[in-house]
């Protein structure tokens, strides 16, 4: 199926039905929660201090709940009224705004200690009308410049998003840099198809000490992928019906020992060449 | 919910509206009180970011006059409690916020302000 952001604008895609579905799906919730925790980790807030955070594209408040749990106060913006309605029903504690992030924010300078955004940025990459203010670069510029001024110095903003190509990452990072942000992209599980997650980690200011760029989580397989591999292996064995690759050195030594015990003649003696591979050309 | 803490950080973001665009004026508001946990550290952290006169005026508009008109130098616990009440527990559920410079109206319904702009207002 094609990506949601290619189907319709967010306020239409996340209508009443989709908003409910999104919020009730436990798998969605789990993924959102994992990414929110990771984003918080990347934000690198001072510990034990309640911060005032901005959740960009807060939706029904799934990530906001986690911010609350961690002891932070937050405000959220989203463009889909249905999502915000679900958020109201779920009785969350953040302040909500109906706002198009591509139009920019009106927050006073230095309002927030940090910003997070989960699965949102890709929505800014599609133009809805031909009006000049609707072009992705224009909207991104407006978004990043107003966000930059709304954040404290020093602070961070972390965005998890789903880019379709490297060009998109390039576009986003270059505009963010022009807006005054430092930082760049962090990729978790870069070699996994399913677990791969892209985080844009932006810094406001650095003071005397430059902010350290965080590292992505390495390792190419998460649980799902590992399981997938085992299943693949088992399926292959069933088809061929016999076991493969058993004739390693241990197996050969065992067999030779057995033959000697039985008194078989002409069993080759064991040496350092036993069970070793030949060169491909001889 | 529009709490006064976010109202105090909110300015108008219409194209070209850069001076005198803060604070937004409340109009025809309905207010709801909702108790939240008192967090003195958080309030202390926010102090430097608050615009005191704007906060006092906004509090007046929603019918609360418990805070002193001038920002006191020393913050004792009692004052922090009051500040907490004004900032965190007063929720504006319905009404509107109006920019005093360009008169743009941000309607609030169900506790959610509509910050969307028309095409000609986008900067």
UniProtKB/TrEMBL annotation, chain A:
Composition-biased stretches (Basic and acidic residues): 224-248, 261-273
GO CC term (a single one): nucleolus
Gene3D superfamilies: Vaccinia Virus protein VP39
Disordered: annotated segments: 210-248, 261-282
Keyword Transferase: yes
Family label: Belongs to the class I-like SAM-binding methyltransferase superfamily. BUD23/WBSCR22 family.
Protein name per its UniProtKB record: S-adenosyl-L-methionine-dependent methyltransferase
Species per Swiss-Prot/TrEMBL record: Suillus fuscotomentosus
UniProtKB/TrEMBL annotation, chain B:
Signal peptide (UniProt feature, chain positions): none
Gene Ontology biological-process annotations: rRNA (guanine-N7)-methylation; tRNA methylation
Gene3D superfamilies cross-referenced by the UniProt entry: 2.20.25.10
GO molecular function per UniProt: protein heterodimerization activity
Family (UniProt): Belongs to the TRM112 family.
Subunit comment: Interacts with TRM9.
UniProt-recorded name of the protein: Trm112p-domain-containing protein
């Amino acid at each position: 199926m094609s990506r949601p952001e290619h189907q319709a604008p967010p306020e239409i895609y996340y209508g009443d039905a989709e908003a409910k579905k999104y919020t009730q799906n436990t798998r969605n919730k789990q993924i959102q929660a994992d990414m929110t925790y990771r984003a918080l980790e990347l934000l690198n807030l001072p510990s034990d201090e309640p911060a005032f955070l901005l959740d960009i594209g807060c939706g029904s408040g799934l990530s906001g709940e986690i911010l609350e749990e961690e002891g932070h106060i937050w405000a959220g913006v989203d463009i889909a009224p249905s999502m915000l309605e679900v958020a109201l029903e779920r009785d969350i504690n953040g302040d909500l705004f109906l706002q198009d992030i591509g139009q920019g924010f009106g927050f006073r300078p230095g309002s927030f200690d940090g910003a997070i955004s989960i699965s949102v940025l890709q929505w800014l990459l599609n133009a809805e009308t031909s009006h000049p203010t609707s072009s992705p670069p224009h909207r991104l510029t407006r978004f990043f410049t107003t966000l930059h001024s709304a954040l404290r110095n020093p602070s961070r903003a972390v965005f998890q998003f789903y880019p379709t190509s490297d060009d998109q990452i390039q576009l986003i990072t270059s505009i963010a840099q022009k807006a005054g942000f430092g930082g760049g992209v962090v990729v978790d599980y870069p070699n996994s198809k399913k677990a791969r997650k892209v985080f844009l980690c932006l810094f406001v200011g650095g003071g005397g000490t430059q902010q350290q760029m965080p590292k992505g989580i390495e390792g190419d397989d998460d649980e799902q992928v590992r399981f997938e591999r085992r299943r693949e292996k088992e399926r292959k064995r069933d088809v061929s019906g016999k076991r493969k690759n058993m004739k390693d050195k241990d197996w050969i030594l065992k067999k030779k020992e057995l033959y000697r015990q039985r008194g078989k003649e002409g069993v080759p003696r064991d040496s350092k060449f036993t069970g070793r591979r030949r060169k491909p050309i001889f | 919910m529009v709490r006064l803490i976010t109202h105090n950080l909110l300015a108008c973001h219409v194209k070209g509206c850069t001076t005198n665009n803060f604070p937004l004026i409340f109009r025809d508001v309905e207010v709801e009180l909702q108790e939240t946990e008192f967090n003195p550290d958080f309030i202390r952290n926010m102090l430097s970011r608050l615009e005191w006169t704007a906060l006092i005026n906004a509090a007046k508009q929603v019918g609360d006059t418990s805070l002193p008109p001038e920002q006191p130098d020393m913050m004792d616990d009692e004052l922090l409690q009051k500040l907490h009440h004004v900032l965190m527990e007063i929720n504006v559920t319905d009404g509107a916020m109006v920019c005093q410079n360009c008169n743009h109206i941000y309607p609030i319904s169900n506790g959610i302000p509509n910050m969307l702009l028309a095409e000609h207002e986008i900067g």
